[in-house]
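Continuing from the previous page of notes. For each protein in this section, the sequence appears first, followed by its structure tokens. Read the first protein now.
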Amino acid sequence: MKISTKWLGRYVDLQGISIDELADRLTFAGLEAEGRTYLAQGTNLVIGEVLTCVAHPDSDHLSQTTVNIGKEVLSIICGAPNVKAGQKVIVAQNGSVLPKITIKKTLIKGVESNGMICSLLELGVDPKTLTEDQKAGIEVLDKDAPIGQDPLAYLGLDDVILEVKLTPNRSDCNALWSLAYEVSALFDRKVTLPDYLAYEHIGQPTQLKVSSETTKCPLFIGKTIGELTVKESPLWMKQALNALGFKTINNVVDISNYVMIETGQPLHFYDAAKLAAPEITVKDNRLGIVKTLDESEIHLHKEDIVITCQGKHIGLAGIMGGDDSKIDESTHGIIIEAAQFSPSQIRHTSRRVNLITEASLRFQKGLDLNAAHKAVLRSTQLLIELADAKEIETTVVYGTPTTDEKIVKVHPQHINDLLGDVYPIEKVMEIFRVLRFSPKFEDQMIVCQIPTTRLDIEVAQDLIEEVGRFVGYHNLKGTLPLMPMTLGGYDQRQQLRNNIRSLCVGFGMNEIITYTLVNKDKTVEGVSPLANPQALISPLSDERQYVRNNLLNSVFETVIYNQSYKMKDFQLFEVSTLSHIDHTQERLALVQSGNITINRWQKETREADFYSLKGIIEQLLVENGYAIGRIRFDAIQDHPFFHPYQSAKVFLDKTELGMMGRIHPLLSQKLGIDSILMAELNLEPLLKTKVAKIKYNSIIKVPSVLRDVALVVEQSVSASQIEKIITEAAKPLVKSVEVFDVYTGEHVEKGKKSLAITIAFQATDHTLNDDEIQTHFAKIIEALKTQTGAILRA
């Protein structure tokens, strides 16, 4: 927020307070002064009148002038092309210190010069605020400019603008009057505000009607001014508004901005003659277009708040008025609007239509309900004084402004405990008094009556914060907090993410982080499309306008990019949270391309295949506590993205986690990339599934016995089924089951496959003999025949 210290000084006495002191006290009180800007700088400046102006005898571009500065006439050499006799100008006398030069008596091409005629650029005025003519030559003042006076004061440039960073809870300080009270409390100075209350009961009967058909507008105040004069604003008002970066239009429009800065309440003025009738209704759930003052056409959504007159849209509530009812030179009567609108809705609409105004920023932060009434009265006062307002009608109100001040209590000991020091009750009461909290001490409690402007004061801790602010946070004693020591940790979701990251890195994979925002039209064929994607209201580009709801599309872009730069051998993974309309989902993507390293020391490599990726998925699940027997892979066929014979769906118990496998050869060929393996898994079921408890057994001291067997089974029978049957049939002697070969083709009946399996038998207390092994082996073969129709292969 920008603050004009000169304007602030009209309401609170700043005499004897330096800019540095003011900025420091505000900062230590929680209103951080981030920077300051001098509108212009220069010492020993006066207004002068050019008496004569002749060409320099030895120069084709210099002029020799005489300038009357009141107490004397100076001879000055000037190089500006626009200098002429009779002009009122800014003169820097000998000894003047300007931003880039110190003025002293000098000879210029043999002629003595005593001073300099200045342009505003030479005084350090921001070039953005100047016209091309002002940049090109000296500043020519009005003919009535008083000779000998300070030109910066005359132009309103003797001002310093403070940039104050307001915290979200201090929306009250968007009003200059509220800030004046804050400075008053900090420096114990008196506040003097305009006597706007004298205009409260002025008004004749009115035909104006105002209403609201939406809960998003709890208060709407209207007032008709039947006759006024639109003209140029007085110099002091233009200077005040220009100092804060406002463009001045005319006296009526400028008054609305001026009062908004004073009270914090945005106002809007309608040309009464341009409305169909003196009836204003606030609505939502409307469609159509609003043409705003900047001539933009805003397409309404149903949730937007709109100002209407007999069904016609005349303004986008809280953001900008309509172009059809704007104030211009033809305006002779106006209707004043001061209202309260839903902060969240104003924020939403403002961002959606990309229209951020001074009014919308104030509505978004919340306003004092009483500010609207103050703003109407103050604007009425200024319209009478500056726009010759007549035929002033009574104020019309929809809703009820709150006048009840909150009562908040705090115990003195609570203040001492929280701030870590002892503060006398008298000192605390004085702080609350200067803050206008009307403190009383009742039943061992300090009872405060909070002004309606202070929306941030709700509970006792808020009052304690006010004490801390005024004591000064830098003056609070530093003490270590007394609290029980607790051991922090990760929640289940964080643990799962960290475990997966560590394991994947251990497998030799590299983590990637891809864009959350994607282009809906750039999905890879066969990958799950962005069904019902969430679109951004104001995307920065067409390439990033939707929130993704799968990982494979994003990861696939990374694969294509790397292979295009001849990077063929890599392993990638990404763990990310995906956003859906009604929920979020933790997901994992895995990629293997080319050769993978299986022995880092000897640098042995082999080509990535279905089983290498399958092994990583199994290991990820097992290492996170899910038994291998709960994991299942079911073959996928006729999927446009995956290879018909090297892909599978991944299940944990009966819950599908996702898909994995080699991408379809036709897709690889179409995209011009080498074949790769990919997987995408939904991790949410893992967070809801019980993890097996880890059991510890002593190391078995007796040896195991291995038996190999070759089986012929239907191709639909999975290796995991075979493993489960073998384990169950010979419990508890089967230590492990490993499939080391799969064969289809010659000597194997069509539709079937041969599996070569190694079974490890081991007892815990003795070495198994041949009879024991043969007995359990026979049970295994019988179970396989019964459950899968398996036969021993000769």
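Done with the first. The second protein uses the same format. Note its length before scrolling.
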Amino acid sequence: MEIRVILTKYLTSALATLTFLSASTTITKNTTWSNDITLTKSVIVNKNIILTIKKGVNIFIDQSDLSIEDHGHIGLSILGAIKIEGTVDSMVTIRPSMITSNNNYWTGITIHESKTPSKIEFLSLSNARSGIDIKSKATARGLIIENCGKNGIYIESATNDSIELNNIDIKRSDGVGLFIQKGNVFIDWVSIHDCKSIGLVNNNYGVVDINNTRIINNKDNGIVNYGNMTAYNLSVKENRHGIIISSGFSVITNGSISKNRSNGLLIGGSSNVNIEGVTIEQNKGYGLELTDWSQEDYSSLWLKEKSPSVGIIHSNFIDNYKTTVLDQYRYNNIWSDWNDIEYSGDGWVQNWQENIHREIPFGRIGWVGFQYNSNNGGSEFSWQPCTGNSVWSPIFEIQNSRDQTITYLPAPFQCSWNPLAGKNSNTWIKYGDFVGNIDSSDSYSDWIINKTDLASSNRYLLKQYFKYAFLPGQDSSFAVKPDVTDFSLSFYHGGNEVSSYSDNSNINLNSNYWGSLKKEKQLANLFGNTDLAIDTMLASFNKDGLSNLESDNDITIYTPSKGLAYQEIKLLEVGWHASGWMPMVDIFISVDNGDTWESIGSDIINNGKYSWWNNLIVGEKFFIKIEDSYNSNNRTIVGPCDVIENITPLMQIEINELHFITGENEKEFSIKNIGGGLLEWSLSSNVNWINLNRYSGSAKRESFCKVEVNRTGIRNGKYNGKIFINSKSDEKHIDVSMIVAKPSLYIDTKYLSFDSTKNSQTFNMKNFGGGTMTWEILSDVRWLIVKPNRGKFITGKTVGISIDRSKLRVGNNNTTLKIRSNVGERTIEVSAFGTKTPKHDTVKSTFDPWRWMYNYDVY
């Protein structure tokens, strides 16, 4: 069938810009789509070319001959850049031309590596295999991505360019909602829900900053982090596990992790985690589970590593201990095959047994599956080894740490009900069942396993044995090689607030609230490591330890204030606090008691502040209204406020508190003159760990001041102080609080890439804690230069990396930088592309056998 592009309305770009190929259309000049379009073939945007799509445009994907099981082939492949210019009221849409339940109807948008950044605003996209695949610098705002066959958004940045996602709704993906393979990603107001897999994966090369984000009701885990993740104002609920931090670095503040179907938090070995002001509530499993096992990345096996470093303070653990749950997920990446044993015999063989101990990383085994072969690769004979002499005997079983047999596979007793009876040698038997108490009776065929959650540690005994068995040999012994392979496990979780199978020497759970917990034995799993650092407990619920996304939608305006006077023709600062889910707001002003409203800002990112150069007139009274951009019923009004002549200095401080969480050492605030004249001001502090970059000044409009906190020599804990701001007419203060944690090394990248044009880059090291960090960087290649390569710092350090191209091989060169410190080791993967550099030809035209003695270059 001929593939064609149908223009449903006039297209503003000339047809000359389209080059038709057999299965795609290539755009070779900057092109604008202003009207609806139907695509029946893929579109490729060439390098250095920009495709612009205007607001309100509908793009229909037409593959009418596609069956519901097939994957479509049409997509947008961006080698240059794409600019989508939708608005809240007039979004751009890309969807199938017909109603379909095929979530792989088309391939999606792929933004390849490019020097030109892409920008996507207010796009609705559906039924693509991978909604948006991002490989270079891009920003996206106001997106709805739904019903994708794989990932809603997939990010694998080829360089260290930043990728910004704001006001994004990802829902009902068959795969991971947002998958960050590589890149520096900034997330604000993102909602991921109702996906059939994990909500958000940050793989081991991902660096992500998450703000105002909710991860809700995904079939698998809410968030899984293997890389570097910081999160603020986070709501994670009704997923499988809420958050898994397997091997990465994480800082989480002001969050809610609640009502997940298994654990609230599962923290693995080699991870470094600091959590403050988070409520972990009513999760069906443990509130917190710790293990020294970890996965290096999304596709790795779980392996036993070193214990995690975890600090959780000023948080709330509430009623997680009240329930237990069997997590139905089948782990097939924990136990390796047991295939290294052999025995021999001829005729009756008695009392054979082989044992092996295995550990699990978390929980208690609740279901086990495996493949069993009583003789895989041994001597050939016509039936399986079978028991005799009226003796019943399992041939494989698992016992927990309390010596209870929790599951078994019986050997044949010449019985038709037995799974091995009548089977030939070298026959695989697939087994899978819940574990529990074995209900034994006089009749072997009636033996059953009663599904039970049996208390146990993480250590289990696997046994292969029999008391009597007959091997059908004749003149010589038979060699028998039994195998147990393809283990699959599911686990029970819960019954306590905390469970730990790790060394708890670097675990700090002080200064938390433990809810209705009355009995100490309900706090920690007694079959794990109960040596937890919980010396102090909060007596009451920490009200600051919540995500305000859980609250009802509400807006409170704190500036301007009713009854106060504001000067004409001056920058008017509008400040507000919002709760609930409200990604954007609109701001209006009225000078007629609210009869009419004039917009002064629309579709503003809800970050709590907006500046407007006012055109008010002396003597007017004005009102300010702020409302939810998506629901005008969510609004608030302040006023009346007076307008006065612009002559007298008036001091305004936008913030009334500064909170330095783990990893933050410097913040900025401003002193604004919202009046006229010159405002003179001075600063002071009541504690010596607060440092200010200036202590006095004057402002016609605004002065900026920096505050640094010095954690040197200060013990772990929370500290409070004040900054006093004085002027001739007013005095204000800012409350300052600081958290001091243990030293903790943070690296702001996981990889550095040098293409043929780059010769130097930098990365930053930070101490997300207190004390002094000592460090050194080790490299095993000569082409990489590190300056400095060792030293000490308290807050942070920038390190320069450069390459010596004369030492590079042609093509790809790869190495791993090892960063060793007094609190652990980190790595950075480095790649550099070497190009061929021709040497000057100094070979003589006549052959001279002695020329090899001299310094000639020969090729």
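What the second structure shows: The two ends are 55 Å apart (CA to CA). The domain at 745-834 is CATH 2.60.40.10 (Immunoglobulin-like). We return to this in next week's lecture.
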